[in-house]
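note to self — DONT lose this again. spent like an hour looking for the file last time. sequence + predicted structure for the chain T wanted, 261 res
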Amino acid sequence: MTGGFLGKAIMQRCKVSLVGDLYERACERGLGLPLDGKRRRRLRRIDRARTLFIHIPKNAGMSIAQALYGEQVKHATIRYYARAAPRLLWRTPSFAVLRDPVARFVSAFNYAQAGGSADNRISAPFIDRYTAFRSIDDALDHLEEAADIYQIDHIFRPQSWYITDRKGKVIVDRLFLLDEFDRVRRFLALRGIADVPHLNHVEKPPVALDDGQLVRIRRFYARDFELEQALRDEAIDRLPSLRELLPLPDPCYRAEQARRA
């Protein structure tokens, strides 16, 4: 829908660099956009899997999506699915994987400098700037100077942005931590997924951060730190049963039941 001169003009008017961000921008304004064939196909695959995975970049998302759907689902927020496929979202359990924000930032920085990996490349609007980063501070300057979230590539966007509603409330059904990946494997095993391949990894030496850089990271990703700590504070290590993972009733059915009551 966004090919050629007209598509570029629309993106420029909406102040976005990525096609997917047109849909996110529309969601912000309470609007819906027509879905192309690829987006409709992804929704069908999600429906067949009876599980909606919110793919937060740099959190093993490509590996999980490939195992669950047999293809990539891109980086869309829960708000996008609420607008694009509300009935699917209503009846389909959703989950996402969170990561320690410092470790994720360092991973994103290494990925940015490398221009991506053998499995995926940095998106074209950002690759020149990102491969030119000389230091951690260059990357942090970029985050702090961005006019809004759409001026930052997905790899650096806060994790909370993907899983919350417009008021900042988490509306994804279940969250996992990347460093507790065995729980993710057990969860996927309930969906018939026996193995999760390791994709989109960049091997780089550890990056040392000074105190000032850590302060800047904590400030920019403050909500992510809150969410990570809340997950670590949970005392219950419980996985849902297959019965709990069945699709939820159709909203029309629930409305009818409420009227009868």
